[in-house]
Specification:
Low-confidence stretches: 9-17
CATH architecture: Sandwich
Order of helices and strands: HEEEEEEEE
Structural class: mainly beta
Number of helices: 1
Family: Belongs to the small heat shock protein (HSP20) family.
Strand order of the largest sheet: 1-6-5-4
Protein name: Molecular chaperone IbpA, HSP20 family
Distance between the termini: 97 Å
Helix content: 10-25%
Radius of gyration: 23 Å
CATH topology: Immunoglobulin-like
């Protein structure tokens, strides 16, 4: 009986504290081909309005906040609000004006197209 009272008291003291949203790095897959670099970031539960993508001077910053709407008293909580953050170095050869992103099933797909000068090309040898 006293154990149950201790658990209840402990939970009440935790909820009274000011809890900061934890920050985690999303899992990421990166693919590259001749045309672009494609980045997939796992951000479950994040709405597109809550995602920020910044590219500046060879630095790519991704962030997104998963907000949880709850009602009623919390009995047990393991899955709550979280902020996803990740920073990458990207080549200067990325055409920033053509970068686009899409969010589907909790996966952010970021297309980073290469500038024409950075794409591989075949050099034709002319006969003299």
């Amino acid at each position: 009986m006293s154990e149950r009272k201790d658990i209840t008291t402990r939970q009440e003291s935790i909820s009274e504290r000011n809890i900061k949203i934890p920050t985690v790095a999303p899992l990421v897959d990166i693919y590259e081909n001749d045309e672009e670099i494609l980045l997939h970031a796992d951000m479950p539960g994040v709405k597109k309005e809550e995602i920020t993508i910044n590219i500046d001077n060879g630095r790519l910053e991704l962030s997104g906040i998963r907000k949880m709407e709850t009602s009623g008293a919390t009995g047990w909580e393991e899955f709550g609000e979280v902020e996803y953050q990740r920073v990458f170095s990207v080549p200067q050869s990325i055409d920033v004006g053509k970068v686009n992103a899409e969010l589907s099933d909790g996966v952010l797909k970021l297309h980073l197209p290469k500038a024409e000068a950075a794409k591989p090309r075949v050099i034709e040898i002319k006969a003299a």
